[in-house]
Amino acid sequence: MTSPVGLHRVVEPVGVLPQAAWRLDASPRVGPDEVLIDVERLNLDAASFRQLSEKHGGDGAAVRAEVLEIVTSRGKMHNPVTGSGGMLVGTVRAVGPESPLGLKVGDRVATLVSLTLTPLSVDDGLAGWDGLGEQVPCSGHAVLFARSIAAVLPDDLDPRLALSVLDVCGAPALTDRVVRGYAAPTVAVLGGAGKSGSLALVAARRAGAARTVGVVPVAGERERLVAAGLADEVVLADARDPVGLSAAVAGALGGPADVTVVCVDVPGCEHGAILSTVDGGTVIFFSMATSFAAAALGAEGLAADVSMLVGNGYVPGHAEFALGLVRAEAGVRGLFEARLAAD
Amino acid sequence: MTSPVGLHRVVEPVGVLPQAAWRLDASPRVGPDEVLIDVERLNLDAASFRQLSEKHGGDGAAVRAEVLEIVTSRGKMHNPVTGSGGMLVGTVRAVGPESPLGLKVGDRVATLVSLTLTPLSVDDGLAGWDGLGEQVPCSGHAVLFARSIAAVLPDDLDPRLALSVLDVCGAPALTDRVVRGYAAPTVAVLGGAGKSGSLALVAARRAGAARTVGVVPVAGERERLVAAGLADEVVLADARDPVGLSAAVAGALGGPADVTVVCVDVPGCEHGAILSTVDGGTVIFFSMATSFAAAALGAEGLAADVSMLVGNGYVPGHAEFALGLVRAEAGVRGLFEARLAAD
């Protein structure tokens, strides 16, 4: 039996998880619970591409050569400097008889687990890529484990829109679950006009929030979020300013929020989020800029009896849930499409 | 009206919380919801004292002078290099009529909020301290806000034992709350022989855990924890090794834990804790060495549907709850007393 988390694919050092491994076995033999993907494109993590591009002074051929060297030597696209990977798009070539992922041959999928733990082999030398952008067209194969996550790309949505939604699909699913744990709660979303923030706002409303407020840092975002109609209130505040933020949230909701969702990707928002949340409430931190110590010590220093959740990017059914929100809510879809058009 | 979080005591920069302030107003005028403490001793944070002692090459007089300079210039004992403070012990001198803390004049108390946000003034030049240890006998006063936390020192326990318990009292209280959210769950405590870990183990058992396992890194701790009788099983494993740890936990509990409590203060325990926890379970991270990103990305990479809580050091009633456990559980008390005797 193969390991559901892919331990059998770890070549060195033996015994660690695939993400921590230096090298994976990317051979196309499919274990009983594995899935083999024909890869058509890699989306490199933004931090990884930036590091490579800066290292080589924007020389696309050199960037391409290094990406190829990483994949060849490690059996995965795991940037050793940034520690990050990305995701991939491809088509299912083979499905082991015991795979629990529900995929079938021919499905066009995007992987929702990081490339840093996904066995990958490239067979075209990345000839179709100029090395100048994060989107890497390529030919090769990749392997999913029993506990990997992949989403079938929908026929009815622009693939770029779908990928953009799938990238943040954990946020609305976890927001939905937390909001349903309260009776008609008030909900504040910091960074409400962003990708994860706008999805969290509509998820909260649909999950039974009595009142929602989207907090944004600049007037342009306020206008866009008001026009999209996703929140009962939209307020302008700096999420790094605990006093100003909590006053703005309390003003909009009639008191501190029952649930506060942090989708602002800048450091220093922990104390403001805690101070904006009522005793007995919950703060969900989705921002990767969150400091564990600032959150833990901040709540203690404020004698704040709030539950603080690390925003787990995985909730069962999260991909379909997020895509469903974008289909049903024209306001969210409009924000995503405007962002894609501006890229 | 004064601010419950002490904004009215912030001198500069104006508008930030007391912890973020450079300088606080430590005047002994008591606001309507404040409490004034006659200070008898400061317990400097270990990291803060170490930094000061190393900076001055162990010269106690120089360390003493710098601590005095910090308190005088900042109105609080907030080490500007380490960013840390400590706690204090003293006696209540005055209580504002609207203070919600439940303290009365003459109570001997320990503060459970950091010295980094506590207005403090010293009036004896720290003459009774040699500058060679973290315990600073002194004379002066300090101020508590409405949302500060202080515990009355019990008459029936050695003050050193009580302080040692109060230092980690958030862990058993939050463990109790989380375990009660499940029906007869299995519970794993990583670092089960330590201060917070041993308290979490007995809290879990009393809250209705069906089976508990304490995980420890070395044989000596295993012997001590087995002898204390706090867990159904005690196993030896490196919490930084996800595969070994999860196998050890599953072996002891008959499968992954419903609740995993991380009390190991070393980096790199996130993936092991997640892999040791069943889908639908909860991981509580009490270790200040926890990486937010490692937890968030690790759960996603493992497709683990686990709730991950930032271990909030404040839960209402946490001090009395922890002291009660130590009174009632000879095994825990023995571990604490052995640790104090070894200091």
TrEMBL record, chains A, B:
Any single Pfam family the record assigns to this protein: KDD_N
Annotated organism of origin: Polymorphospora rubra
Entry-linked InterPro entries: GroES-like_sf, KDD_N, NAD(P)-bd_dom_sf
Domain L-erythro-3,5-diaminohexanoate dehydrogenase N-terminal positions: 8-154
Protein name, as recorded: L-erythro-3,5-diaminohexanoate dehydrogenase
